[in-house]
Amino acid sequence: MTYDLIIVGAGPAGLAAGIYAGRYMLNTLIIEKAQDGGQISQTAEIENYPGLRTDVEESGLSLTERMTEQVKRFGAERVLDDIVSYELSSDVKKLTGLSGRTYEARAVILAMGAHYRSIGCKNEDKFRGMGISFCATCDANFFRGLDVYVAGGGDSAIEEAIYLTKFARKVTVIHRRDQLRAAKSIQEKAFANDKLHFIWDSVVDEACGTDVLSGLVIRNVKTGELTRLDADPADGMIGLFGFLGMIPNTEGLEDSGIELADGYIAADETTRTNITGVFAAGDIRKKELRQVVTAVSDGAVAAFQAERYLAG
Ligand code: NAP
Prior knowledge:
By secondary structure, the protein is α/β, with parallel strands linked by helices. The chain has helices at 12-23, 60-73, 124-127, 136-139, 155-164, 184-191, 292-310; strands spanning 2-8, 28-32, 77-80, 83-87, 93-97, 102-110, 114-116, 132-133, 147-151, 170-174, 196-199, 202-209, 213-220, 226-230, 239-242, 246-248, 260-261, 264-265, 278-280.
């Protein structure tokens, strides 16, 4: 069968698009390869999304569950599959899944998200959300008055490190070279900040602790020397933020004709891509602020644009 609309990805952008598409009475299929929520399904606590419940501890998972439930009420069909190829140029778009199944629709919203490049240290998964974070805007508040480490040396790492100094007692950037990649103007601000410190030529080798992150082992990439950094005993924990660049989830789009910009799908605030009938929503889209609130906004806009496109 040919759907009106296929939404690929059931993170906040895809789920919001599903709600709006349902309200527009579009015959919609949402395809997700794993669990709903994308990156937020791994976020322990969320506090900056407007309207969150305060009577229960809101996690990324609980917020996602409510979004998923809301999508169900609007009647979108769901399927679990990993889309591996996209034929988008014709009026009827054809998507093929890892399962071998093919899916057809007259419009497609690409909402597959992005993922942070992992820090690559031992125990990284164990302490993700328990001291290791990839989002200062989301998590800085949890590290008030503590010692915080930032891995990376690009614009994001240094800008976020400066932001973290407003919360943390001390912020130490761990960078694999002896020069930052960040823009000179950002570097100047960083070097002038008394709360910001640097460990050069080093990477995080291991994250340590029992329940929460309370220490790091760092490795000097030139000498191979290992150094252990422990939390102040009175604190019991430290923070480690990874800003090693993001990787958009564009696998499978290589031969689709979709235009990319810096690896992300090139689409402005209308979410329209270079291919008619194809829209990009959420973190996969080239944009500046990647947050749940901007992802759901994209999802709503993309469904609106898809409805207008389908209505001719
Ligand atoms: P990025 O520029 O790719 O920087 C990534 C940083 O992580 C680099 O310092 C890199 O080290 C380091 N790194 C990468 N892989 C690593 C590994 N496996 N182990 C240790 N270190 C590793 O990423 P970004 O900072 O997220 O920025 C992405 C894009 O957004 C850039 O074009 C940036 O200019 C832009 N941006 C702009 C602004 C702004 O203009 N205000 C703010 C944020 C981002 P090396 O330096 O040694 O390669």
